[in-house]
Amino acid sequence: MSDKAKFQAIKGVRDILPPESALWNRVEQTAREVFATFGFVEIRLPILEQRELFDRSIGGETDIVSKEMYGIASPLLVIKGMLLGESKFPGLKRDSSEYLRFLMSLSAFLVVARDALQSKELGAQNERSIHELDHAFQAGLTHFPNADPSRESERQQLRKDVGELVSRIEVEDLSLRPEATASVVRAYIEHGMQMLPGNVKLYYMGPMFRRERPQKGRYRQFYQIGAEVLGSSDAPGIDAEVIEMLMMLFERLNLKGAVLNINSIGDKNCRPAYVEKLRAELQKVREHLGEDSKRRIETNPLRVLDSKLESEQGIIANLPRIADHLCRDCRAHYDEVKRQLGLRGIAYQENWRLVRGLDYYMRTTFEITAPGLGSQNAVCGGGRYDGLVELLGGPATTKGIGFAIGTDRLVLSLQEAGEGETPGGLAGKAGGLDVYLAWFGAAAQSAAIGLAGRLRDAGFVVELPAVEMKFGKSLGLADRLKARHAVIVGDDELAAGVVTVKRLSDGTQQKLGEQELFSYLRAVQSAGD
Ligand code: ATP
Ligand code: MG
User: Is this structure's pTM higher than 0.85?
Assistant: First the structure.
């Protein structure tokens, strides 16, 4: 990059600028207030986690884990991956250059690994494996000269041995989080929160990262506000209350046209049989499906139901429905969730095609859509994940349910409805300048500094010029900053013990003592002027 190159935000990430940031603050602040009334407390989580945490919880076959995660690539990790790939090479080609490449990767790995041992990036427990790899490398060099066909089986054995040794070396493999439920559960287990009384109710907010194709409402760095309930109970009333909390937040934010979709996707007793049935039916229509769905027949048949592909809609309509295959317990749970929503006066739509792109969900799943977002219209997704705590090494008795709101999309939808533009009201004090404090002369500056401090203490938004300006220029700036008042302090005012207050909307001005100034500003403020 040349010296003069301009920097730009990278693809799929963006700056959130004022005045839009005021709307973000309102959304986040309202969430804090509403969640607090339901007894939720905030957890602040790291953005970096071990990749394995997401592999295990979200599922290796999901889009998120298989192609959207941002890993942190250390040289050691990259070469380790390469070696593991090459050690599995089936050896069909008796090609000396191929074998040479393998040996070169091994040698590069050894160089980097020895450095990493020394700098303690690699733990001492790896020393032995690295030593053995060293021997393997020597053997590879001396015992296996160029592509001698009779030595092929020995070369294969060497690759296998190297593969095994390399896979044993514990290289740090980190990832930017693509979502936060896994982190909440990790923290819950790590800090023994199962010892806490009652259900543990946590909320979080912050950025998530997924390498997706950027478009309206879909970014590579996006934000979520989420909440989780963890504890020994899976009572349907918990599911309903979590949804109630969400709907209350949306109502408080004046989000119009939000639609709640719900479904039950069964549990480990009934879902596997349904998935097999679905798979069998999908096999029959395989030829009429798109590439993604074809692949998902094997990897994740439920996700086919989620397809937006026009040509598949007719086929999907005729597929077996999970609702007809729920076991007794899941059916009863789902019926009770719906009854509990009814008790709370919450309207919902049942959507049998609603599945989620993460493996850990079971039973209750839900999604909320909002207007103004085009095809990215889901502002919130959530559901129950009773097996997740156990899967990540915690107690088998801990159940969980939660949701994540896409803050970017929520803000977009509010903006589309004109909610971002209410002057003053939304932005609150931070948006409006109450006082531009113009001073003229050194003595006035010191008086103005004191006055600015007292005004700010009282909660007024004050702009104090850092350097002295000519009268006209100073008052012009007050106008352009859209200050409500210019408060002028000059030698005359100092001598008389007053300030001149000019209302900038109509130019009227008056001289006031400090007490009168405060009373006047308070009166203006409470009149909502
Ligand atoms: P979608 O179907 O829209 O891809 P998802 O099922 O991947 O969403 P979840 O992982 O359930 O989404 O995340 C919950 C919410 O986070 C979504 O409903 C959405 O509002 C938001 N979200 C997910 N991915 C993105 C993204 N790349 N950019 C902006 N918001 C997102
Ligand atoms: Mg997605």
Answer: yes
